[in-house]
């Protein structure tokens, strides 16, 4: 029975009394908790009472003294929680003029973290804005009057120049500057961008036309060489043809029968191509054909063939 009663009392104390006690202790700044990557600055009567930058549970009366109990009473003091984690910022299109007078825009990216919380709070009203303006001004001062070719290519050297100029000033405001890198360089004048685009298009057209012309010239050279070679071969063939024909006729002339047959064939072919009318009279039918021609009043009958033929 006593065990149950103790359990009930402990339960109600843990549920109701413990939060009340912890809230009262926190109200008098007896303890505080600090998260990872965070610190707290305590100010009493306009003076910095202490800085707690280690994560965990801290007893302020032991760390700062009994006067920590006055921080939250009657506005005597104030607590500033500060984020110590790494932060980053990107500044777009900082105006820079090249050595040739070309208006350029430079984008600068940088990292920073709060190194000294007290300087961060009390040495500058707007340290983040001041650091941003400092990086922008350093970018303009360091990269102005730089050759255009270097602006467009050498990013690492430009980043190093900007970081060297920003770092000393940033430490005065409690910041520790990390990496600084020039990420983008571009033309700011819209008319210049349009002219560059037009020049690029014209250059591409010239290159395309030159490639096409070179291809056509190469095709013409190949065609001319082929035609010249073909004409040479045909000329050789025409020069050789009389010799070949003469040799063939000489071989044919050695046999009289073959020679007569060839000449008769040539004669018949010539008569056929001439378009003349030819009348063929079979053997023994000459008188019948003559009577037919005479009866129709046609052509004058030719003389009868000689017996010798």
Name its key features.
single chain, 309 residues, alpha+beta, Tetrahydropterin Synthase, Chain A, 3-stranded antiparallel beta sheet, 55% helix
Structural commentary:
The chain has 309 residues and is α+β, with helices and mostly antiparallel strands. Among the domains are: 82 residues, no CATH class; 106 residues, Band 7 domain (Tetrahydropterin Synthase, Chain A). The protein is built from nine helices and eight strands. Strands 3-2-5 form a three-stranded antiparallel beta sheet, with no helix packed on it. Strands 6-7-8 form a three-stranded antiparallel beta sheet. It has a two-stranded antiparallel ribbon with strand order 1-4. Helix 4 packs antiparallel against helix 6. The chain is elongated, with a radius of gyration of 57 Å.
SSE arrangement, N to C: HEEEEHEEEHHHHEHHH
**CATH class of the domain at 87-192, anyone?**
Alpha Beta
| Poorly predicted parts | none
> Within the CATH hierarchy, at the fold level, what is the topology of the domain at 87-192?
Tetrahydropterin Synthase, Chain A
- CATH arch. level architecture of the domain at 87-192: 2-Layer Sandwich
Which sequence of strands runs across the widest sheet?
A: 3-2-5
For this structure, what is the CATH homologous superfamily of the domain at 87-192? Band 7 domain
How many helix segments?
Answer: 9
- Overall 3D form: elongated
Radius of gyration from the CA trace? 57 Å
Strand content: 15-25%
The biggest beta sheet is recorded as: 3 strands, antiparallel
Mean pLDDT over all positions? 79
Number of beta strands: 8
Structural class: alpha+beta
Distance between the termini: 167 Å
């Amino acid at each position: 029975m006593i065990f149950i009663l103790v359990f009930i009392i402990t339960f109600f104390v843990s549920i109701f009394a413990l939060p009340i006690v912890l809230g009262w202790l926190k109200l008098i700044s007896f303890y505080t908790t600090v998260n990872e990557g965070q610190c707290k600055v305590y100010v009493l009567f306009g003076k910095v009472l202490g800085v707690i930058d280690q994560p965990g549970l801290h007893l302020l009366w032991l760390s700062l003294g009994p006067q920590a109990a006055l921080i939250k009473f009657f506005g005597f003091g104030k607590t500033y929680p500060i984020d110590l984690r790494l932060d980053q910022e990107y500044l777009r299109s900082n105006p820079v003029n090249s050595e040739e007078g070309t208006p350029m825009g430079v984008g600068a990216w940088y990292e920073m973290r709060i190194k000294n919380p007290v300087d961060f709070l009390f040495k500058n009203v707007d340290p983040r804005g001041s650091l941003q303006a400092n990086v922008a001004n350093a970018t303009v001062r360091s990269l102005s009057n730089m050759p255009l070719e270097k602006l467009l290519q050498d990013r690492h050297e430009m980043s190093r120049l900007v970081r060297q100029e920003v770092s000393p000033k940033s430490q005065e405001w409690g910041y520790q500057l990390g990496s600084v890198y020039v990420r983008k360089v571009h033309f700011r004048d819209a008319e210049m961008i349009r002219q560059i685009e037009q020049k690029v298009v014209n250059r591409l057209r010239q290159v395309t036309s030159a490639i096409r012309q070179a291809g056509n010239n190469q095709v013409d050279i190949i065609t001319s060489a082929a035609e010249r070679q073909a004409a040479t071969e045909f000329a050789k063939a025409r020069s050789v043809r009389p010799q070949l024909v003469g040799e063939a006729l000489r071989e044919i002339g050695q046999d009289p029968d073959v020679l007569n047959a060839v000449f008769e064939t040539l004669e018949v072919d010539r008569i056929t191509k001439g378009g003349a009318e030819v009348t063929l009279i079979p053997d023994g039918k000459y008188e019948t054909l003559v009577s037919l021609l005479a009866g129709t009043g046609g052509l004058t009958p030719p003389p009868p063939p000689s017996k010798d033929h």
